[in-house]
Specification:
Helix 1 crosses helix 2. The chain is α+β, with helices and mostly antiparallel strands and about 160 residues long. The protein has 4 helices and 9 strands; from the N terminus they run ααββββαββαβββ. The chain has a single domain, classed as Electron Transport, Fmn-binding Protein, Chain A (Pnp Oxidase, Chain A). Strands 1, 2, 3, 4, 5, 6, 7, 8 and 9 form a 9-stranded antiparallel beta sheet that branches.
Length: about 160
């Protein structure tokens, strides 16, 4: 499994764009999953980096989490309203594992309360998905071209320039 710190070491530019765009939108990202009929689903989600993990949790019994329980593949895209992509955007790809550790859940709920005031302390998570990143990319418009930065585990970042 690729930890968050491994990802940020191997892909510092992509990680920086993800963090910047994630914060700029109040932690909102768009989650791509696969529905039971095989078609894609796009859903809003607020992932968190917690204890060196990218955690994807949310309201219980949502279809996006049923999708992930059935097929763990996902795409996470930073939300944007800027059609010119002047601040770049990031996409993270991977699979999730449902982590059943109640002690981790309790620490997560405490941090969530400390950070946002949302009180889920003492509540059970129906899913606590932890991401294993398999690739990532960013797109940035720079002057007269696009810079697409791509990462795969163990390969570092590479930039593809499109004019």
């Amino acid at each position: 499994m690729t930890t968050w710190s491994q990802f940020t070491e191997e892909a510092p530019q992509i990680a920086a764009v993800f963090i910047r765009r994630h914060k700029a939108t109040g932690n909102l990202c768009m989650l791509g999953t696969l529905r039971s009929d095989g078609f894609p689903r796009i859903s809003p989600v607020e992932p968190m980096i917690f204890e060196d993990m990218l955690v994807i949790v949310g309201m219980p019994n949502t279809t996006k989490f049923k999708d992930l329980a059935r097929d763990p593949r996902f795409c996470l895209h930073t939300a944007t309203v800027d059609t010119k992509v002047t601040d770049a955007d990031a996409k993270l790809f991977g699979t999730v594992t449902d982590l059943p550790d109640k002690q981790v859940h309790a620490r997560f709920a405490e941090k969530l309360f400390d950070d946002s005031g949302l009180d889920l302390r003492g509540e059970e998570f129906d899913h606590f998905f932890v991401a294993d990143l398999t690739s990532a990319s960013t797109v940035a418009v720079i002057d007269d071209h696009l810079d697409i930065t791509i990462w795969k585990p163990g390969q570092g970042e590479r930039v593809v320039r499109k004019h």
